Amino acid sequence: MSIKFATGFEHPLLFTSGSASLTFGDLNVMFNDHLKHIRYHIGTTGTVDVPNITAYAAGTAAIHRQTYFHTKHNGYNSNGVGSAFRYFIGSHTHNILVMKKEKFTDGFYVNMWWCANTRSVSSPYDVVYAFTTGTKTYGVALKSDLTAGVYLCIRNMTPGEETNYVVATEPSWTLSTPVGPSNTTLSLDNTGVVTASFNGVTVSYDISSVTGETSFTQWDEFGVATNPDRGNIDDIIVCDGAGTEYNTVPPSVKIPFVYEAQTYESSVNTTASDGGTVLDVLTDKDNSTSAVITPFPGNIRMVIPPLSGIFPPGEANDVAGVIAVATKMYDTYTTQPGKQVAASVKVSGTTSDGETLTIPTTPGDVSLFTTRYSAAAPWSVAALNNGNFHIQLDVT
What we know:
The chain has 396 residues and is mainly beta. The protein is 6% helix and 43% strand. It has helices spanning 24-30, 208-211, 278-283, 381-385; strands at 3-7, 18-23, 35-40, 54-56, 62-67, 83-88, 95-99, 108-115, 125-132, 137-145, 149-156, 163-167, 173-174, 181-188, 193-198, 201-206, 221-226, 232-239, 263-268, 270-272, 291-293, 298-303, 324-332, 340-347, 350-358, 364-371, 389-395.
């Protein structure tokens, strides 16, 4: 299994309309701790202007998000509020979200949605993906044509060497394309071949013919880009090339957020900090209340609602199965060092084990990722609709 993370950028403290902010650490929890830093102030000319790029890491700035975003490819909670990642820092700058390269060994495979506020062709290029050897920078971009729309291309973005290696022959967006979501994928494989798609249009180029390197290890940094007007990222899933399943471009995903929609089922050695119910303290959006497990071991078990309780009417028809569950815990900590929490998904009595991690001794956000073992047979939608989908957190 090689799924690294999947996120829709929802957060329990941000169920409001308009814009809101999170720290880099909050954002990285959604990326399952795969973010290295964010480079911002990327130029709109299709060039990585080195003097104007700053790498921001944990705790240095805020994340600005668009909540209540208008596309259907956001996650949904019971209030129908969704979100998409817009930009980092201020001034609506273009960003590149750089991955931790040590997390990837055999490729960088992305499937995500770009959600646009506008279709205007106001800039020569919009960067969608970027990757660098450390001395040379390349990328996948949308090239604007004021008479036709935007065309997908693979480009050398090194200052002073700007050139397009390949440009699609048909536009990904025309001047009349309705504003909304567009699916885009990237395959940065272990042979030096780059293949990308945007709104059904695909381009490919053998970068090894330029770099002279055929291994994935040639890349010093790689990541996805955001554009505050035409590149609000939503519902992203990323895989590595390692493993026997999901080791190439993953399927397109919908990532619902079931924070308030979950139902408390049972627990062992768990109480509410304020004397109320466990469900109340998990869903009250109040950092001062929490579920307390003592003595150890203990657990909390929740039931995920059927699709009708997650997606708006008609959305369920687009879902073929469930391949992963990301469990996020906010302000989690232990007073006894060395304690661990493990996440598992139980479907109709069958258990799939997820990750295990050591709980921090100071309050912090942590996440655990549980995937379906067989890509050929994901967890069924029927099991979800029948109420047989349970999430359990075991603390030992």
